[in-house]
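FORM 7B: Structural annotation worksheet

SECTION A. Query
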Amino acid sequence: MILLIMMAAFSAYLAVSVCVVWGTVRWARMTGRNPKRWGVAAALCMYLLVFWDHVPTILLHKYYCATKAGFWVYKTPEQWKAENPGVAETLTWMEESPSFHHIDGTWGFNVNERFNWENKYEVNPILPILIHKESVIDVIT
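SECTION B. Predicted structure
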C-alpha cells in the first residue's frame, strides 16, 4: 500500500515537473529567449526541489569512505594474551550485559569483567551522513 502511495506521489511530481519544463520552454520560445537554456534551468530547479542534498551526500560519502573508513586492530588476541598471562582463562561471558551511556554520546555494553564494547555516532548537522565507530576496549589497560 505504501508503495502505491509513493508511486502516485512520484507520478504526480513527475507530471508537474514535465508541465513546468514544457511551459518554460514554450514561454522561452514565445519571448525569443533560448528554450534549451530555460528548459534545462527549469528541469534543474524541479530536480533540486526534492533532491537538493543528493549530490553533496554522495560526495561526502565518497570522501569519508576514502579517508576515514576501515578496520584497525591495535592488538591481536594472541598479543593481548601474551601481555596478560592467565587472564583470558578467568574471563566469563555475561548473558545479561549491563549497558552504559556517556554524555559524549558513547554507549555500549560490558562484555565481561575486562572488556567493553563501545559504540559512538557522529552526525553531520546538514547532510544525512552518519559516522559509526565501534570498538572493543580493555577497561583496565
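SECTION C. Observations
The mean pLDDT is 88. The chain has two domains: 2-51, 67-138.

SECTION D. Sign-off
Analyst initials: ____
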